[in-house]
């Protein structure tokens, strides 16, 4: 199925007013397990830094929910959020102007080509690299764009069932992916090739997270793919499954996993 058209429809629904967009961000923060893991790592990075005038790159910003969350931690941080989709960039710039967050700027950029040498203290890439074939080139560009000591944080599917692919004969649940997932050693080697020396990688989406993902994302999206009329039933569906998903997300984010369908990777320049 094609995931992007459904994402676009959701964006159109929640982009009607700033209040709806804020609500959308908060719902994503609760529902998406990757957000729990990413926020946990960002809190660790941000500790003791909120009063520093830092520069952050959101590399593949999508809806802009991570930029929104980061910009709320400190008004002293300047955040550049880039994406290849003109409409999302325009909508996001309008929204952030409406809510008065002047420390944020969205721009249209191709990560395969974009480089801003020695400019950023932190780069964030959440569920982006599985969409880009030239991943090592992107890693090189981000490495060059980081200041010395700067960190890159990545969330991406793993090869342990990421993109809901478990066997050689299966195809990705999300057809826009160019790879089903990274081997944990493979992504570390690619980051070393790009110039990173200190790298930490761990699994996310262990057993609790995989159940949560199916309940909260896979099944609703499959039903929306069959009929947009399912939008009417979504509130009732989530009223039943949402409490279970929150508990499963909490368990997954606080556990160490020997394997999982997601990866959280940190790399320092």
What does this 3D model show about the protein?
With 269 residues, this protein is α/β, with parallel strands linked by helices. Helices cover 45% and strands 18% of the residues. It has helices spanning 3-14, 18-31, 33-46, 65-71, 86-98, 135-145, 184-193, 207-226, 234-253; strands spanning 55-59, 78-83, 104-108, 120-126, 146-157, 198-204, 262-268. It has a seven-stranded mixed beta sheet, with helices on both faces. α3 packs across α9 (234-253) and α8 runs antiparallel to α9 (234-253). The model has no long low-confidence stretch (mean pLDDT 90).
Q: Please list the strands of the largest sheet in the order they lie side by side.
A: 3-2-1-4-5-7-6
| Beta-strand content bin | 15-25%
From the N-terminal CA to the C-terminal CA, the straight-line distance is 38 Å
Number of strands: 7
Indicate the low-confidence ranges by residue numbers: none
Secondary structure class reads alpha/beta
List the total number of helices.
Answer: 9
N to C succession of SSEs: HHHEHEHEEHEHEHHE
Radius of gyration: 18 Å
Shape: globular
Q: Sheet bearing the most strands, described?
A: 7 strands, mixed
Q: What is the typical, i.e. mean, pLDDT?
A: 90
The percentage helix is: 40-55%
């Amino acid at each position: 199925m094609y995931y992007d058209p459904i994402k676009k429809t959701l964006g159109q629904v929640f982009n009607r007013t700033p209040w709806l967009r804020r609500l959308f961000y908060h719902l994503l923060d609760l529902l998406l397990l990757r957000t729990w893991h990413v926020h946990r790592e960002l809190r660790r990075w941000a500790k003791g830094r909120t009063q520093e005038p830092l520069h952050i790159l959101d590399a593949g910003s999508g809806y802009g929910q991570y930029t929104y969350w980061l910009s709320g931690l400190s008004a002293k941080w300047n955040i550049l959020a880039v994406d290849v989709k003109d409409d999302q960039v325009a909508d996001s710039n309008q929204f952030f102007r409406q809510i008065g967050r002047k420390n944020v700027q969205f721009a249209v950029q191709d990560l395969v080509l974009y480089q801003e040498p020695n400019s950023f203290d932190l780069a964030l890439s959440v569920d982006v690299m599985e969409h880009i074939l030239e991943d090592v080139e992107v890693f090189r560009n981000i490495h060059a764009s980081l200041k010395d000591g700067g960190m890159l944080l990545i969330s991406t599917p793993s090869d342990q069932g990421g993109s809901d692919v478990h066997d050689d004969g299966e195809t990705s649940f999300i057809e826009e992916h160019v790879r089903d997932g990274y081997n944990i050693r493979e992504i570390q080697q690619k980051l070393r090739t790009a110039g990173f020396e200190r790298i930490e990688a761990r699994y996310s989406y262990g057993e609790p997270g995989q159940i949560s993902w199916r309940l909260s994302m896979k099944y609703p999206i499959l039903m929306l793919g069959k009929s947009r009329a399912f939008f009417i039933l979504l509130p009732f569906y989530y009223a039943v499954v949402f409490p279970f998903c929150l508990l499963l997300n909490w368990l997954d984010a606080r556990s160490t996993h020997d394997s999982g369908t997601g990866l959280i990777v940190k790399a320092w320049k």
